[in-house]
Structure formats: C-alpha cells, structure tokens
Hints:
Layout: E1 9-14, E2 25-26, E3 29-32, E4 36-37, H1 50-55, E5 65-69, H2 70-77, E6 92-95, E7 107-110, E8 114-121, H3 128-131, H4 135-139, E9 140-142, E10 148-150, E11 154-160, E12 162-164, E13 170-173
Parallel strand pairs: 5-6
Antiparallel strand pairs: 1-2, 1-6, 3-4, 3-12, 5-11, 7-8, 7-13, 8-11, 9-10
Pfam family, one: MOSC
InterPro entries: MoCF_Sase_C, MOSC_domain, Pyrv_Knase-like_insert_dom_sf
Protein name: MOSC domain-containing protein
Amino acid sequence: MPPPDIPACVVSVSRDDAHRFSKPVVDAITLVEGWGVEGDVHAGRTVRHRSRRAREPELPNLRQVHLLHEEVLDDVAGRGFRVAPGEMGENVTTRGVLLLALPVGTVLGLGPDASVELTGLRNPCRQIDGLAPGLMREMVGRDARGDVVRRAGVMAVVRTGGVVRPGDPVTVSLPDGPHRPLGPV
C-alpha cells in the first residue's frame, strides 16, 4: 500500500494503436470494461500479445492494462537509466502504491469511476534493452533465495470503465481470503 506521506495517484497515462515497445503519453485514457484501454493495440477480450496470440488466440486477455509504479523508474534512474513514463509500454504510471507487492485479484480504483483487477506480472522481454543497454538486468533479477524477481510492472483487466487522467487518485482493495502473489501472465 502507499507510504503514509505519499498520496497514491496516477502520474501518467499512455496508449498506442500499433505494436511498438513504448507508448506515447496522452492527456487521458478511457478504460472499457472487459476490453482494456480504448484505442490501444492490447485491448480486447482475447489475448493481444503477438507471440501469445500466434500460439493460443482464444485465451482470455489478462493483459488489458499494463501498470507500472514510478518508484521503479526512480530506482533505475539512480543507476543511470533514464526511463520516462510510457517508455516501458505501460498504460498507467502510478506513484504511492507498490504494485509489485500486491496479490492477484487486487482491485485498483483509478480516478472517480474506473477500476482494474490485477492478474499478474509483466514478463519482461529483451526489447527493454532497446531503451538502454543493460536495462533488462534492472527489470529482472534474483532475490537472496535465487528466485526470479520481475519489476517491469503488473497486468490487469478492466472491471469498471471510465476516464483516467494524471493526478487522479488510486485506491487499493485487497481480495478476500488467502492472498496469492502475482506471477507472470
């Protein structure tokens, strides 16, 4: 959840109608229930990721919205990597919510109307090094036990549609019952 001195908010929103790694920042995005970001290439009820669609085109789209918390960008900036919102391909950049620590099924309220449900982690790919050589090592590593740690953001499906803008508040509703950690989707 957010640190007590930082209000959780949307920092930036992005979308792209073509398969490119980075997404241009826009003034607002519209989330459509069960679909994703209006006008974004990854929106749809079934899988939209090119390699996954080629293998299993009828799978449900668990990657309708990509979110990344700005604190990750701050961390890699401290290591010499300047990455701006949208450049990692995320639709929503947030601040004040440690997204990677949330469990599957967490619902994030975005602004006055929209909400998304977390489905899993983004599995980073080598295209990240296209932004800056060596950046992939910052987005995927291993913890002290040797387990893989992915830091390239989280994926979600749209539960409630609405317009999302920078400055909008972010609320967190944890799922009932036992919590399952996010895994790659």
